[in-house]
């Protein structure tokens, strides 16, 4: 007996319901025509704005042509999951206290990659149980995928002037994930931009990394400098890092739409080891074993202990020159890493304190 034809519009509606039941706050569907985004990516790469992130050009057109990455793909299910663990007032309080370390809000809890991918896999399995065998692959910041242009096409928000996705009712503190599929699902209406004349994100950026509306020079971005860059942080940017030791949220904190940001319901995204308000000196005292233990299951672990100390040395160089700060820096001058010693020496010079 021939099975009845699939009602893809009805299936799309059910996928959205299932996704919300699995903990995604937004679910939309996009087609795979990303030619406009592809041109923006090529222009961005040509200007060298990706810095040392060679992976941004390593896969050629697979990033902007989903069917080249996963043959047979004709639709993308795009999802968002809110991650803000606390109100934005607590983030600003941490930024304003130069004895504290500021960690980007997305990295305070457990690594999001596994959680989001597991939920996407459950969603894909449910689709497969309903329609039978299908071709698909799930992603969460784990492959060459233009996740923000896809989410914009799926109606989950618009790409703001800071290049993050913004939802009118939820701000921008959320993760994105995708299911590439060979199902001919009806695409949603792309989101319209609501940034208007606002330039709050451009004006607040400590390093002027948003060089024009919708254009980010990653080489100047604090998230890039503290996470992606493996080498020495250029001295011209070190004072602007302030106490930011892993990432930066300033452009999001300044965005008026984030007054609607929703707190996460996921316990995995709650702060661990009091990283939301940890003292710089306490974190600087971690040896490598402590670092590896305290960052187990955290996205922070990817930078390693050496870069962790590098970033903290810069933050301590920007802190008030108390005897405890100077003593901690002087003690690290014996560190075996030349990278760490260089940044420690810079910090001591800021305080006009001699290395030991």
Automatic annotation (TrEMBL):
Swiss-Prot/TrEMBL keywords: 4Fe-4S, Cobalamin, Cobalt, Cytoplasm, Iron, Iron-sulfur, Metal-binding, Oxidoreductase, Queuosine biosynthesis, tRNA processing
Chief place where the protein resides: cytoplasm
Cofactors demanded by this protein: cob(II)alamin; [4Fe-4S] cluster
Residues noted as binding [4Fe-4S] cluster 2 in the record, renumbered to the chain: 205, 221, 248, 251
List of residues binding [4Fe-4S] cluster 1: 195, 198, 201, 255
Example of a GO MF term: metal ion binding
Chain positions recorded as cob(II)alamin binding sites: 63, 141, 165, 176, 223, 248-249
Swiss-Prot/TrEMBL catalytic activity: epoxyqueuosine(34) in tRNA + AH2 = queuosine(34) in tRNA + A + H2O
Record localization: Cytoplasm
Active-site residues (renumbered): 141 (proton donor)
Pfam families hit by this protein: Fer4_16, QueG_DUF1730
Pathway field: tRNA modification; tRNA-queuosine biosynthesis
A single BP term in Gene Ontology: tRNA queuosine(34) biosynthetic process
EC class of the enzyme, as a word: oxidoreductase
Assembly: Monomer.
Task performed by this protein: Catalyzes the conversion of epoxyqueuosine (oQ) to queuosine (Q), which is a hypermodified base found in the wobble positions of tRNA(Asp), tRNA(Asn), tRNA(His) and tRNA(Tyr).
Name of the protein described by the UniProt record: Epoxyqueuosine reductase
Organism expressing this protein natively: Methylogaea oryzae
Lineage: Bacteria, Pseudomonadati, Pseudomonadota, Gammaproteobacteria, Methylococcales
């Amino acid at each position: 007996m021939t099975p009845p034809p699939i009602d893809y519009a009805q299936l799309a509606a059910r996928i959205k319901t299932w996704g919300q039941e699995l903990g995604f706050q937004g679910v939309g569907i996009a087609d795979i025509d990303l030619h406009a985004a592809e041109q923006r990516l090529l222009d961005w790469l040509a200007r060298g704005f990706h810095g040392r992130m060679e992976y941004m050009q390593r896969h050629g057109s697979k990033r902007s042509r989903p069917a080249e990455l996963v043959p047979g793909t004709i639709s993308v299910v795009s999802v968002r999951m809110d991650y803000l663990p606390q109100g934005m007032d607590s983030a600003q309080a941490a930024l304003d206290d130069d004895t504290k370390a500021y960690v980007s809000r997305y990295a305070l809890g457990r690594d999001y990659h596994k959680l989001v991918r597991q939920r996407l896999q459950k969603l894909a399995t449910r689709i497969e149980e309903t329609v039978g065998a299908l071709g698909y692959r799930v992603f969460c910041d784990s492959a060459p995928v233009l996740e923000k242009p896809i989410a914009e096409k799926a109606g989950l928000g618009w790409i703001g002037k800071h290049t993050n996705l913004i939802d009118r009712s939820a701000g921008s503190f959320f993760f994105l994930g995708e299911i590439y599929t060979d199902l001919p699902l009806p695409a949603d209406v792309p989101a319209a931009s609501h940034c208007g004349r606002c330039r709050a994100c451009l004006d607040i950026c400590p390093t002027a990394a948003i060089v024009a509306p919708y254009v980010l020079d990653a080489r100047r971005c604090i998230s890039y400098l503290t996470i992606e860059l493996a080498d020495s942080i250029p001295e011209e940017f070190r004072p602007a890092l302030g106490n930011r030791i892993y990432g930066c949220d300033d452009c999001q904190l300044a965005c008026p739409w984030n007054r609607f940001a929703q707190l996460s319901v996921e316990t995995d995204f709650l702060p661990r080891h009091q990283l939301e308000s940890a003292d710089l000196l306490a974190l600087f005292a971690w040896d490598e074993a402590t670092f590896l233990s305290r960052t187990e299951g955290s996205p922070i672990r990817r930078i390693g202990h050496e870069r962790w100390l590098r970033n903290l040395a810069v933050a301590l160089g920007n802190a008030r020159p108390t005897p405890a700060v100077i003593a901690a820096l002087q003690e690290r001058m014996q560190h075996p890493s030349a990278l760490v010693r260089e940044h420690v020496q810079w910090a001591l010079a800021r305080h006009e304190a001699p290395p030991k």
